[in-house]
Design goal:
The protein is α+β, with helices and mostly antiparallel strands and about 140 residues long. The protein is built from one helix and eight strands; from the N terminus they run αββββββββ.
């Protein structure tokens, strides 16, 4: 009876250890999880001053994200705040100095591979389309 229990236990334990052993390998980890981390170049095609270009840098910080953006129209780099990434959507706020007048912005951009599309709401202007392309991945930062 004791031998039969040992054989029964081994018949369960051996297949389970093979399955679990395969799961513990780091080669099975999905490295294709979407992330906004990287350096992005963006264009806002329809501002009151015409097309606007710049860069957006997003970095992982603890459990969340931080970063900054450069705006060519105002030749300034500003921090991005309240950065969140949920359901492939990057959201952040930034405050721009437009010739002495502070303007709040709020961006909502959907990530698809190395591109993001969405809108940026600019205080006193409205919602503007924005498109960004990742130029450097998180591994290159």
């Amino acid at each position: 009876m004791r031998r039969e229990l040992s054989l029964a236990f081994l018949s369960i334990l051996l297949p389970a250890s093979i399955v679990w052993g395969g799961c513990s390998s780091t080669s099975n980890i999905n490295t294709n999880i979407p992330t906004p981390v990287g350096l992005w170049t963006y264009v806002i095609p329809s501002t009151p001053q015409g097309e606007a270009y710049g860069t957006l840098m997003v970095a992982a910080q603890g459990e969340g994200y931080s970063g900054e953006m450069y705006i060519d129209l105002f030749d300034q780099t500003v921090p991005i705040e309240e950065v969140a990434f949920t359901d492939n959507t990057l959201m952040f706020k930034a405050t721009l100095d437009a010739g002495g007048q502070l303007m709040g912005t709020a961006a909502h951009m959907t990530l698809s591979g190395d591109t993001m599309n969405g809108t940026v709401a600019v205080e006193g202007v409205g919602d503007l389309e924005i498109t960004a392309t990742r130029s450097v991945t998180d591994e290159g930062l």
